[in-house]
Amino acid sequence: xxxxxxxxxxxxxxxxxxxxxxxxxxxxxxxxxxxxxxxxxxxxxxxxxxxxxxxxxxxxxxxxxxxxxxxxxxxxxxxxxxxxxxxxxxxxxxxxxxxxxxxxxxxxxxxxxxxxxxxxxxxxxxxxxxxxxxxxxxxxxxxxxxxxxxxxxxxxxxxxxxxxxxxxxxxxxxxxxxxxxxxxxxxxxxxxxxxxxxxxxxxxxxxxxxxxxxxxxxxxxxxxxxxxxxxxxxxxxxxxxx
Length: 242
Fold this sequence. Notes:
The chain is α+β, with helices and mostly antiparallel strands. Helices cover 27% and strands 25% of the residues.
C-alpha cells in the first residue's frame, strides 16, 4: 500500500457521504439545473441512512410510493454527477476515510466490509485507490455476465444481463503467494522467461527507491533491487549484536 492524500475537495463530511449514496443508487431525469435526484431503495436500513444524510445536509425531500416495498426519494440537488471523476483523486486522507466508510452502506458488503460492487470500471479503479491509500491491499475481480439470463424472485420475471461486474476486494493480509488460476489446481502459477531483443537486462532507479505499479488490476510495490534492502537489514542486525 502507499500513503497519499491530495489538497482536498470543497465538501464537508455530510456532503461527501450523500454523494457516495447518490453515485450508488441515485438517478437524474433532467440534464439542466435544478437537478431532480431520485433514489429508489427497498431496505429499511438504507431508507433510514438516506433520511439521516438528507437531514444532515438540510435538504428537503419527498417520499413517493414505489413498487413491491420500494420507496422513491425525490429531492433537488446541486449537481448530477454519478461517477467518481478524476477530481476525486485529490481528496485528503480524512475524506478518503469518509468515502471508504460510506461505500459499505450502499454498494459494499455491509456485513463484512471487505468488498465493493460496481458496473463502472472507473469507479472500481477509484475505490481501489482509496482502499490502498488507507492501508488495505486491494484487487479488482471482473465478472463478465453479459448475455446471462437472471430471474427476479419477487415477480418471477427474467432479464438478460448487459453489464460487466467489478468487485473491489479489501484485506489487511500482508502475505501473498503465486496461486493457480483454478482453485481445483494447486500448482503454482508458471513463470515464463522473457528473452530481450538484444540479450541484455536493464535496471533503473528512482529517487524513493520504490515504485507503485498496477498489473491485472492488482496494485503492488516494487523496489529497485531486492539485494540492497535485504543486505541493509542484515547489516543492521549485525550492528545490534555488536
